[in-house]
Amino acid sequence: MSIRKGWFERLLAPERADRRSAGHFAAYRLKGEALIQEGVRDVSTTGAYLVTEDRLPQNTLVFLTMQQGSAVELNPSRRITALSRVARHGEDGVGVEFVLPADADAREWANLVESLIQQTRPNEMLALLRICTAIHFLSRICPKATFEMEQLFRGRLSNHKIANAVSIANKAEQLLGSQANSADPELTIRLLEAGACSDEEWLRNQWAGLLASCCRSNRNYEANLSFVDLFSQLTAAQTRIMNLVCSRAGAKEGATSTFRTDDLAFGISLREAQIERDLEILCDHGLLKKGFSDSRALLFTDTVELAPTRLALELHARLQTGTA
């Protein structure tokens, strides 16, 4: 998202865009969850040629960090962190053009990237690139919300929670691909702040599914807000139970299935009374219907009949696949 002046421009002569040999450079990018390192044959102030076997389609946008060596350069004057567009294919790689900030909003997002890198001080390239790609994704879906995002990331979230929010944003982008629509900034910030409290990866992935669904149905603000608020009230144990019941029922509203009480504990050290309270809470939220009396005390040897409501099935679909 940004390309900095310094050693790079001194090397290339800033008044020229001629490409220079850059065999000592390395380029890093994300491919799904994996970190890819590629050689840089030549580079200029406008683009570079990457030596790679991965034939990225033309016009594909990729975030690149280029620098000397593999250790993370926290000093922005000693690395290039830039959104790039694949411009051409060669025999042994691809040529990319740097997409430089063209307006005030883009420059503010670029500054937010650098400030987060300085704040969190990532010690590995994978973490640095995750921050860059996450902020770029958020700039796409909430282009006018730089100030609000900066308040969230630099004011209200700890470094640990920043990593969790970045994880949610990156997963949501994977679910959406190039089809990301705009999203309501207030809703997105609310979702990220709640989801950043989730330390379990599977739970962050579900928050990502919810974010993706909000992007796909961005005009239905009230419905999206209700799902964000509802999910933020569920514990991990309650979410596991709801997912299990919905998965067993398929897409059939009210389809009743029988469960052993100990299966609802998912191998976690839970007491029968806690499971019973979780079932009551899920019913109170309108997510489950149970086939036993409220006055009945549950034992791990018991079986219970549970059915998902339409609300549970819709929330489950959003969490799993990002559909709206």
Short description:
By secondary structure, this protein is of the alpha+beta class. It is 45% helix and 19% strand.
Describe the protein in words:
β3 (34-43) and β4 (47-51) form a beta hairpin. α2 runs parallel beside α4. By secondary structure, the chain is α+β, with helices and mostly antiparallel strands. It has eleven helices and ten strands. The chain is elongated, with a radius of gyration of 24 Å. The relative contact order is 0.08.
Summary keywords:
Thrombin, subunit H, six-stranded antiparallel β-barrel, 324 residues, 45% helix, Arc Repressor Mutant, subunit A, alpha+beta, 10 strands
What's the structural domain tally?
A: 3
Which stretches are low in confidence, meaning pLDDT under 50 for 5 or more residues running?
1-16
Q: Number of helical runs?
A: 11
Please give the alpha-carbon distance between the first and last residues.
30 Å
Main sheet: strands, sense, barrel: 6 strands, antiparallel, barrel
The value of Rg in angstroms is 24 Å
Helix and strand string, N-terminal first?
HEEEEEEEHHHHHHHHEHEEH
Tertiary shape: elongated
Structural class estimated from helices and strands = alpha+beta
Overall pLDDT score: 85
Output the strand order for the largest sheet: 2-3-4-7-6-5
